Amino acid sequence: MKLRYFAWVRERIGKPEEEIEPPAGIATVADLMTWLSHRGEEYAHAFENPKVIRAAIDRAHVRGDAAILGAREIAFFPPMTGG
Amino acid sequence: MAATIRLQREPFDAASEAAKLRHGRRDIGAVVTFTGICRSDESGAPLAAMTLEHYPGMAEAEVARHVEAAERRWPLLGVTVIHRYGRLEPGEDIVLVVTAAAHRQDAFAAAEFLMDYLKTRAPFWKQIEFAGGEKTGGKIWVDAKSSDDALAERWTRPGGGREAAE
What we know:
The complex is a heterodimer. In chain A, about 25% of the residues lie in helices and about 25% in strands.
């Protein structure tokens, strides 16, 4: 699946997107954040406070308990500040 | 009702967008036009520019979803939402919401509802660049305000948003 990062999540990780294949057992968005945070210092920094990170699956907002099965694109970003 | 939704780097002309919305119509009794503008300071610190990042694809979809929600909630006769992205300097327009209805209450309420949701749900992020460069703090991402969340939240309560008009 494709992961996309925005704003300071993107800056901390150091790339706007990447393709990943999470291992079996990673069932939810929250699981995925925990798994990502162990991939290196930059990920640990981006996900140090997972409660503030928002997520979208296939371009729709989801909560941490959302299942990632079948997702094509998952995005992580800070709370939005548009308008 | 046909809504106009555009995400663009270029400036917009609020007056001509409002005129377009009511052109040739005789059923419209009220048009509300809201323009959000880049200020020259953030909490007292002078600002050189603001850069808006967005999530292409999702931002359009999210704005459209909220325009549809506004149409279900109020008898609207027209809606235009234009949100800019990229680097904007103080004094430049950021966002435009135009709502048209037979009566002003519906046009006002729908415009406010759309702005409250654009601020908290549409995938846009503001980064500000302070005047004076690194010496004055360089660039920072704007933090989401809990007051904005509270404003969006009120529309989900029974009679939502009504306290704003009282």
